[in-house]
Q: What sequence folds into this?
C-alpha cells in the first residue's frame, strides 16, 4: 500500500507540474499587458513607469525564463507576489484556505451522507410512494442551479424567517470566542454548505439507488437470500458494500466540480475562501494570484482523488492496488 501511495504521489506531482505549465501559458496568452494593468489608468501613459514595473516583476524576461522562475518558486512554495493586493500570493491563499476547506468538506460530508441514505431507502422501497418522493426530491435539486438555490435560501431563511445570517464567515464586530464563536461560524456555514451539498446529494442519491437495484439482481445476492440470511443483513453486507463502489468513483470525479461550485457559493454568500479570492483576482486581472489559486485548487483535486483510491480499499478489501 505504501508503494501505491508513493507512486500516486509521484504521478500527482507530474500532473501538477503539467497543470502549472499549461496555466502559465494560458494566462500569459490572455489579452492585455500585466505591467499596464498594474500601472492602472493613471500610470499606463507613463512608459518609464511601465518599464520599471516590467523590470521589477521580471516581465521583461523571455517567456521560457519567466516560466522557469515561476516553476522554481512553486517548488519552494513561493507562488509569487500579488500586484493588486501588494502581498505574497502564498500568504493570501493561506489566509483563505481554511474557510474553503471548512465549506467544501462540510458540503461533501452532507452530500455523501444524505445521498447514500436517501438512495438506500429509495432502493429498499423501490416502486413505492417513498421511492417516488425521494426520486422527485433528488431530481428537483439536481435540476436547480447552485446560485438560484443560494438566492432562494437567503430569501427564505434570512430575509423572510430571519433564522440564519445571509453572508460572511462570522458576525462582524461580535468578537466572540470559544464555543460562542464556533456556534456563530456554524450558523454562517449552514446555508453555504447546504446549498453546495444539495446538488451533489441529488447525484449520489440517484447513483446509489440505481447501483443497489442492479446489485440486488446479481446471483450472489440470490444465493445469500437462499441461505436464509435476513434482508437487513443482505442489504448491509452484500448489496450496499458493492453498490458503493461507483458512488465512491463519482465522489472522486466530483472533487473538481465541488471546488468549482464553491466559487459560486462563496461569491453569493460572501464567504471568505479562495473561491471568492479567485473571482476577485479574475476581475482585477491579478495574474500571479490567479495562477496561485489554480495551483492550490489542482493540488486539492489530486489529493481528493488519492483519498478516493484509498477509500476503495476500505469499501472492498478484495481490490488490489495495481501499479
A:
Amino acid at each position: 500500500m505504501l508503494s501505491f501511495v508513493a507512486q500516486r504521489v509521484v504521478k500527482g506531482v507530474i500532473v501538477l507540474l503539467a497543470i502549472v505549465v499549461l496555466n502559465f501559458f494560458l494566462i500569459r496568452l490572455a489579452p492585455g499587458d500585466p505591467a499596464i494593468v498594474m500601472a492602472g489608468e493613471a500610470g499606463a501613459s507613463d512608459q518609464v513607469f511601465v518599464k520599471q514595473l516590467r523590470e521589477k516583476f521580471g516581465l521583461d524576461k523571455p517567456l521560457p525564463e519567466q516560466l522557469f522562475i515561476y516553476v522554481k518558486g512553486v517548488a519552494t512554495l513561493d507562488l509569487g507576489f500579488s500586484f493588486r493586493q501588494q502581498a505574497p500570493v502564498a500568504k493570501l491563499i493561506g489566509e483563505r484556505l481554511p474557510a474553503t476547506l471548512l465549506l467544501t468538506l462540510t458540503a461533501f460530508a452532507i452530500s455523501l451522507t444524505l445521498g447514500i441514505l436517501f438512495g438506500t431507502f429509495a432502493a429498499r422501497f423501490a416502486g413505492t410512494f417513498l421511492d417516488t418522493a425521494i426520486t422527485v426530491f433528488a431530481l428537483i435539486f439536481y435540476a436547480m442551479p447552485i446560485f438560484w438555490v443560494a438566492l432562494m435560501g437567503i430569501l427564505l431563511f434570512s430575509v423572510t424567517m430571519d433564522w440564519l445570517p445571509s453572508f460572511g464567515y462570522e458576525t462582524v464586530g461580535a468578537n466572540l470566542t470559544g464555543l460562542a464563536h464556533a456556534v456563530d461560524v456554524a450558523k454562517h456555514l449552514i446555508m453555504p454548505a447546504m446549498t453546495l451539498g444539495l446538488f451533489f446529494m441529488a447525484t449520489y442519491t440517484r447513483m446509489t439507488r440505481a447501483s443497489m437495484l442492479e446489485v440486488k439482481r446479481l446471483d450472489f445476492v440470490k444465493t445469500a437470500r437462499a441461505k436464509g440470511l435476513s434482508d437487513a443483513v443482505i442489504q448491509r453486507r452484500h448489496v450496499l458494500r458493492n453498490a458503493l463502489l461507483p458512488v465512491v468513483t463519482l465522489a472522486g470525479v466530483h472533487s473538481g466540480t465541488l471546488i468549482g461550485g464553491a466559487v459560486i457559493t462563496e461569491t453569493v454568500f460572501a464567504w471568505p475562501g479562495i473561491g471568492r479570492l479567485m473571482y476577485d483576482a479574475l476581475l482585477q486581472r491579478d495574474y500571479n494570484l490567479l495562477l496561485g489559486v489554480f495551483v492550490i485548487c489542482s493540488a486539492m483535486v489530486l489529493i481528493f482523488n488519492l483519498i478516493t483510491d484509498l477509500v476503495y480499499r476500505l469499501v472492498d478489501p478484495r481490490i488490489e492496488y495495481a501499479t
Summary: The longest strand covers residues 81-82.
